[in-house]
Amino acid sequence: MQGSDHLGSRVPLVLRVIPAERQVLARLLDRRLTRGADGILWELVDATADETAWPAGVALTRPGPDDCVTVSVIAVRDGESAAACADLLRALIAVFRGRAAQALLVVTAEESVISTLRALGFVPAATHGHDLYV
């Protein structure tokens, strides 16, 4: 996974659970990530950046029934491209495949995220309407 720096060159990105001291950055990036948000906060960050650097993207996940995982928030920093959203989703897919999750369910009504999901092969869940992608 790689993102772009201010000069346009590619930098290595890693997905990690957000340490408690960095969760304020996630909350500033997306107001849906309140202190009481239920689940695990993830961040996609430049592996070489210092601890105060903004994440390229964040996500909130929670385990569901039957070894499924629900992603309820996906957010990328203003100015980041659809590529950052795709990088974040690919990293989440890799993590949960490694953990043998049966499905990754993404709840969203954001068109930019939906187009990225579709490009990655996600489809609308028939029983949950247009807001849930599998």
Fold blueprint:
Blueprint: E1 2-4, E2 10-17, H1 23-29, E3 40-46, E4 57-63, E5 68-76, H2 82-98, E6 103-107, H3 111-119, E7 132-133
Parallel strand pairs: 5-6
Antiparallel strand pairs: 1-2, 2-3, 3-4, 4-5, 6-7
Helix pairs in contact: 2-3
What labels would you give this structure?
7-stranded mixed beta sheet; 31% strand; 7 strands; globular; 25% helix; single chain
Structure overview:
The chain is α+β, with helices and mostly antiparallel strands and 134 residues long. It is 25% helix and 31% strand. It contains three helices and seven strands. The protein has helices spanning 23-29, 82-98, 111-119; strands at 2-4, 10-17, 40-46, 57-63, 68-76, 103-107, 132-133. Strands 1-2-3-4-5-6-7 form a seven-stranded mixed sheet, sandwiched between helices. Helix 2 links the parallel strand 5 and strand 6. Helix 2 (82-98) crosses helix 3 (111-119). The relative contact order is 0.15.
